[in-house]
């Protein structure tokens, strides 16, 4: 447990008198005890001043801010004047005596900290915590645990840098050094203070895989231009801004601060930093839930339904789509902002999907509701199935993100079976098509079909037809069941696509063939688990 | 020298397949094809057309009067088949090199000449520049 010792006194006095708040002072003294930061502001201020008044003869650890009676009793009570005998060079301001500072502190309202601009002051108070929780509660999210993230204005890094230079200078007198990395990070200290308060106010445990994020964005308009001098000092750190966004991003400012020489910095920026008039303001308090994934299998019974909405030039060409019919109800129940639909392959508008159906997964983005029992999922499935006869779903369940990978691997590796209704120009007899049943592992060379050539690269795909089974209908029609490798274009295998799929049914039968109907009979993927 | 007209198969996705028109001399009785040559000039062979990626980079760009191939018949005639539309050459049919018969037997399907993809902005004007089957027959009847 690290706390303040004798050698910290000059730093504490310096920072306190230049308008730095107690918690920032603790940070610059490298105090890493989280609990200390959570003490009420007034107590910390009082304890710091007492610490300065006391004059310890021993060099060892002084107990600071610990509510431990024995420790306090052993402290010697000394009220000693500490004259301002610190000499500073021209770049630093004159430090007023501690006594003046004390009186000023007691009579006026809390001054806004010149380093954190109020973040470790006002924005640690219960009022602010309540405000954040109000926002969270009104947004009405379901969550088990949360992550708190905060975005600070870039000028805080500049002020931090200035304060560090100030402290470094002071410590050199004592032959001590202070690395910037040793200072407790503002963001970290802030989260130490805020997170437990939020956790309690929201009645939520701290631990657990937190997918729910509460984020607060702070700004300080009064000092917005404080970083601008860095653009002239380190121009290569600042890239041209896109979309009217400020070129002074946090990352760019930090990079520039690493580069700039101490002398150059002090020329352009006051050290210690000036006391601002106003606190930071909260630009926004946002809530975002991690995505949830719902998987299942769908059957498609319509020959007039696209997978995704078919819109050309802003005009919808066909009513609805597979993804909309399934997602509509899920979006409503999960109260999500948007969805991403993916499936293990897909079929054309005019092709039905029979059998066990095709595996699909839907990512629901920023859902308000995330807890659903197996019963509720069954109910959801029923609702979807009752709403349309064009599609039906089964095995509807919540899955993890990793599951999507399994589904996609099915798309490329697993076999599919189909049923095709085929027409021939010249007459056929039963004997003419019987030989098809005996063909096993037929190798095809398929050039990219003309019907998709505008949006796919030109290539030749080798695919295998594992088995076939023919069913004679009449002199110009027969049905063909096929089991094929994933990625085989069935329609092109039947009509030949101008001879660009070889062999094809036409070439095998020595006739011109065309496909009248196609159904997917099975997608041989064993995911998601059947319920 | 008779005017060559080409059939075009235009799917809603803008891909065009260039084939010989019905009335083309090569499709009339008695003509035997002796050779098909995709080398249309010293520097340019349609066989060397290579496209890559979705946007078909590297494709030879064709204008209406760009020759696709030259076909010779046994009676000494040589016919140049022109693109007739503007666009990127996607592929030429190499099957007719090994089997010239399909050019005459199945001119509208396996005997196609080339596949061309017009620019997206030009696809509508390309379609409008074509004749429908009916209009084509009218033109023929007037000859």
What is the element layout, followed by pairings?
The complex is a heterodimer of chains A (531) and B (143).
Chain A: H1 9-17, H2 22-28, H3 34-38, H4 41-53, H5 69-74, H6 98-107, H7 126-139, E1 146-151, H8 155-172, H9 186-201, E2 212-219, H10 229-233, H11 250-259, H12 262-268, E3 281-288, E4 292-300, E5 311-312, E6 315-316, H13 322-334, E7 338-343, E8 352-365, H14 374-387, E9 391-399, H15 402-413, E10 416-424, H16 430-434, E11 442-447, E12 460-474, E13 477-484, H17 490-495, E14 501-502, H18 505-509, E15 513-523
Helix pairs in contact in A: 1-2, 1-8, 7-9, 8-11, 13-14
Chain B: E1 6-10, E2 16-20, E3 33-37, E4 61-62, E5 67-73, E6 78-82, E7 87-92, H1 95-98, H2 101-105, E8 114-117, H3 123-128, H4 133-142
Antiparallel strand pairs in B: 1-2, 2-8, 3-5, 4-7, 5-6, 7-8
Pfam family, one (chain A): Pus10_C
GO molecular function, one term (chain A): metal ion binding
Subcellular location (chain A): Cytoplasm; Mitochondrion; Nucleus
Descriptive account of the structure:
The complex is a heterodimer of chains A (531) and B (143). With 531 residues, chain A is α+β, with helices and mostly antiparallel strands. Chain A folds into three domains: 6-226 and 269-288, no CATH class; 296-408, 2-Layer Sandwich (Alpha-Beta Plaits); 415-523, 2-Layer Sandwich (Alpha-Beta Plaits), CATH 3.30.70. Chain A has 18 helices and 15 strands. Chain A has helices at residues 9-17, 22-28, 34-38, 41-53, 69-74, 98-107, 126-139, 155-172, 186-201, 229-233, 250-259, 262-268, 322-334, 374-387, 402-413, 430-434, 490-495, 505-509, and strands spanning 146-151, 212-219, 281-288, 292-300, 311-312, 315-316, 338-343, 352-365, 391-399, 416-424, 442-447, 460-474, 477-484, 501-502, 513-523. In chain A, strand 7 and strand 8 form a beta hairpin. In chain A, helix 7 packs across helix 9 (186-201). Residues 57-61 and 66-107 of chain A have low confidence and may be disordered. Chain B is of the alpha+beta class. In chain B, 17% of the residues lie in helices and 27% in strands. Chain B is built from four helices and eight strands. Chain B has a five-stranded antiparallel sheet, with no helix packed on it. At the A-B interface, loops of A face loops of B. Chain A: InterPro entries: PsdUridine_synth_cat_dom_sf (IPR020103), Pus10-like (IPR039894), Pus10-like_C (IPR048741), Pus10_N_euk (IPR048742).
């Amino acid at each position: 447990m690290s706390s303040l010792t004798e050698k910290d006194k000059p730093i504490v006095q310096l920072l306190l008198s230049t308008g730095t708040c107690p918690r920032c002072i603790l940070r610059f003294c490298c105090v890493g005890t989280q609990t200390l930061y959570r003490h009420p502001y007034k107590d910390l201020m009082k304890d710091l001043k007492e610490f300065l008044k006391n004059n310890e003869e021993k060099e060892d650890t002084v107990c600071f801010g610990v509510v431990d009676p024995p420790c306090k009793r052993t402290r010697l009570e000394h009220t000693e004047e500490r004259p301002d005998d610190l000499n500073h060079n021209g770049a630093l301001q004159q430090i007023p005596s501690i006594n003046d500072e004390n009186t000023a502190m007691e009579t006026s309202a809390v001054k806004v900290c010149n380093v954190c601009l109020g973040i470790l002051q006002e924005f640690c108070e219960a009022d602010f915590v309540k405000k954040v929780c109000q926002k969270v509660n009104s947004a009405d999210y379901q969550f088990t645990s949360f992550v708190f993230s905060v975005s600070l204005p870039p000028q805080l890094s500049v002020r931090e840098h200035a304060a560090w230079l100030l402290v470094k200078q002071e410590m050199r007198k004592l032959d001590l050094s202070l690395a910037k990395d040793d200072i407790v990070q503002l963001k970290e200290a802030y989260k130490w203070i805020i997170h437990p308060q939020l956790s309690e106010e929201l009645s939520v445990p701290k631990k657990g895989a937190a997918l729910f994020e509460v984020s607060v964005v702070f700004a300080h308009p009064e000092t917005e231009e404080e970083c601008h001098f860095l653009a002239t000092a380190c121009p290569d750190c600042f890239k041209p801004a896109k979309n009217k966004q400020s070129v002074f991003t946090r990352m760019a400012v930090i990079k520039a601060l690493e580069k700039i020489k101490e002398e150059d910095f002090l020329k352009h920026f006051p050290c210690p930093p000036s006391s601002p008039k106003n606190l930071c303001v909260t630009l926004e308090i946002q809530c975002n839930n991690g995505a949830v994934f719902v998987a299942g299998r769908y059957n498609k019974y319509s020959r007039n339904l696209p997978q995704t909405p078919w819109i050309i030039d802003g005009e919808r060409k066909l009513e609805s789509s597979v993804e909309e019919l399934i997602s509509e109800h899920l979006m409503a129940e999960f109260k999500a902002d948007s969805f991403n639909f993916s499936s293990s392959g897909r079929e054309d508008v005019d092709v039905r999907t029979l059998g066990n159906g095709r595996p699909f997964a839907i990512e629901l983005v920023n859902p308000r509701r995330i807890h659903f029992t197996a019963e509720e999922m069954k109910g959801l499935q029923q609702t979807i199935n009752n709403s349309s006869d064009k599609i039906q779903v089964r095995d509807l369940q919540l899955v993890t993100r990793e599951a999507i990978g399994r589904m996609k691997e099915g798309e490329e590796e697993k076999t599919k079976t189909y049923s095709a209704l085929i027409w021939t120009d010249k007459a056929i007899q039963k004997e003419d098509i019987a030989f098809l049943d005996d063909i096993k592992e037929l190798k095809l060379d398929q050039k990219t079909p003309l019907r998709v050539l505008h949006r796919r690269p030109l290539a030749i795909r080798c695919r295998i037809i594992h088995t076939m089974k023919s069913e004679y209908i009449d002199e110009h029609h027969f049905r063909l069941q096929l089991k094929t490798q994933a990625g085989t274009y069935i329609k092109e295998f039947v009509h030949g696509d101008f001879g660009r799929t070889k062999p094809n049914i036409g070439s095998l039968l020595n006739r011109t063939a065309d496909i009248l109907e196609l159904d997917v009979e099975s997608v041989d993927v064993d995911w998601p688990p059947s319920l | 020298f008779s005017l060559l007209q080409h059939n075009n198969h235009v799917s809603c996705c803008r891909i065009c397949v260039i084939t010989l028109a019905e009335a083309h001399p090569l499709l009339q009785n008695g003509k035997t094809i002796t050779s098909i040559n995709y080398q249309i000039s010293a520097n340019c062979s349609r066989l060397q057309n290579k496209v890559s990626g979705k946007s078909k980079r590297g494709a030879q760009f064709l204008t209406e009067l760009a020759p696709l191939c030259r076909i010779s018949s046994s009676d000494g005639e040589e016919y140049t088949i022109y693109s007739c539309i503007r666009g990127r050459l996607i592929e030429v049919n190499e099957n007719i090199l090994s089997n010239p018969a399909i050019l005459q037997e199945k001119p509208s399907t396996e005997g196609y000449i080339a596949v061309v993809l017009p620019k997206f902005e030009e696809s509508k004007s390309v379609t409008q520049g074509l004749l429908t089957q009916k209009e084509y027959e009218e033109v023929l009847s007037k000859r």
